[in-house]
Amino acid sequence: MAPSPLTATPQLLSLLENLHSQSLTQESKIEWTSLPGQTSNEFDNIMRDKFIALDQDKCELIYHLLRSLNATTIVEAGTSFGVSTIYLALAAAQNASRSGNTKGRVIATEKEPSKAEIAQRNWSQAGNEIEGVIDLRIGDLRETLASDLGTVDFLLLDIWTPLALPALKLVEPHFRPGAMIIADNTLKAGSGYEELFAYVDAPESRFHRVTMPYAGGLDMIVYE
Ligand SMILES: C[S@@+](CC[C@H](N)C(=O)[O-])C[C@H]1O[C@@H](n2cnc3c(N)ncnc32)[C@H](O)[C@@H]1O
Fold first, then answer.
1. Which numbered atom of ligand 1 lies nearest the CA of 59?
2. What is the whole-number distance in angstroms between the Cα of residue 211 and the centre of ligand 1?
3. Residue whose CA is at the smallest distance from ligand 1 atom 12
4. What's the rounded Cα separation, in Å, for the pair 157 and 8?
5. Phi, psi values for residue 24, rounded to 5°
6. pLDDT score recorded for residue 21
């Protein structure tokens, strides 16, 4: 197996291993087939103490893509306990430092204050390199992403599927040409993504997408 693509301290790599492992242990105990609808309070109650972190191989791919895109302004729809955010922030900080004239910024979104608090605790353990990079917006992303985005290089859609299209539409006016969007679980949760795909695949749209064979499906969408 190839070594981790991350330029990171052994401490940070070990923190990430540990967070992913906690997430997977939790996920193995969830009865996915009997979950209530994603827009219900009951669903939120079940998910309030869950990581549901993006799989480690997907996080590593995203970090790699971000380094290649030289992305310095990144939006994350769905932050939870902040695991994927660490990868985004590390890449944004390293890209900014390589460019020399910008500061990396990750706009992270989480509607549950208790989850946001745990995310901040995890980030504080991640070390100096990501310090000051994450702009955490607590609340419903349909409100928190409505202003102050700047020019966006990359959007991660790791959110309940009914929120994917609203998030994309809020960020769309801010994308730079060549911006990239990654959406998770696009095959497994395909029916939930129908509206997003109809929008992205429409002939007049400026988006193009490809589905990659990661677990559950991972879509890469490029803004023309
Ligand atoms: C799949 S998890 C994100 C996992 C995270 N990206 C990671 O890898 O660690 C999705 C998160 O989106 C949050 N969420 C759901 N609806 C939201 C909304 N309307 N605005 C902001 N966050 C929301 C949930 O509370 C949940 O923590």
1. 8
2. 22
3. 78
4. 24
5. -65, -40
6. 98
